[in-house]
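Data deposition worksheet. Section B asks for the primary sequence of the deposited chain exactly as it was used as input, without tags or linkers unless they were present during the calculation. Section C holds the resulting structure in token form. Section D is free text for depositor observations; keep each observation to a single sentence. Incomplete worksheets are returned to the depositor.
Section A, Depositor: J.P.
Section B:
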Amino acid sequence: MKKRAEISANESISDSFEGLPTLSELATLTLRHWFFVLMVTAIFSGAFYIKSRFFATIRYEAKAIIMPKMSRSGSSMEMLLGQLGNLGATSGFLSGVNANTELQQFYRLLTTRQMAESAVEQEKSLKEIGDPIKFKDEESLKNNVISTTQNSLAVKIDSPVLELRFVANSPDLALVGVEAYLKALQFYLTNNIITQSKGAEVFIQERLADLNKSLDQVEVRLSNIRTGKISPATLGRSVQSEVKRTETEFTRLNQLLDLLTKQYELAKIESKRNDIMFLIIDHPIKPISPVGVPIGKFLFLGAFFGFILSMFFLVLRERGSLSKLFGV
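Section C:
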């Protein structure tokens, strides 16, 4: 008998859902039981408000605004991003953004996991952002710290500047996060772009030193031939032809010296231009108050769920399913 009663109750519930209530039926139920609907909606809204006001995680946000140096040619930056491989593509870079502009290239660079890892290396205190309780072993905790660091940074393009926002559980950690990213950005650019310019400058400087040494040797040889310090017998040719050949070589080396000197000056200028890769327009400061919790969003969700549940209860009650199940 008990089993049969359960079967009949289940059949009654399935029968109650055979036809969904129309909008007019729902409107009638709402008007008839408006106080009940209002009360349930208010209770759920209040519960969600209390959760958002007293039980939500407190978060602090620090921000910085930077402006990439636009006078530099884009070739170095493109080469740098090419070294990242597919990291930029998997970093959440918006598909509609044009990847050829300087701002968007910086955006791609900042949102890579590689940059988050570098930020953690720059500021060891960022390791506090991890969850050592959930991730016991060192490797898992390290990956958690890097992932959390990457997800805590938000980068916004607001031409001609970039806005960096870092969210953390404490004001100190939020400030450290932004500063770590700025250090990591400067460190990465210095070692990948400025080094190229410095390398070209050093290379030309070394070639100039070798060329000056060769020029001195040719000049000494030419002087020795003219003064007779070198015997004509050792030349294997006439003195006049050897003097002419040596003078030609001396002239060629002088022309090459002039060319390399100009290239060296250009390399020094390029190196100076690349010393500053970006300007910090708005320096990060320690946040005083936490980020505002979206209370309105919680109130709306509470009201929505309260209304849905109240209407669900009324529909079941109207069709007799509750009385058969619970005797209501």
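Section D:
Strands lie at 60-68, 153-158, 161-168, 278-282.
The first helix runs from residue 2 to 16.
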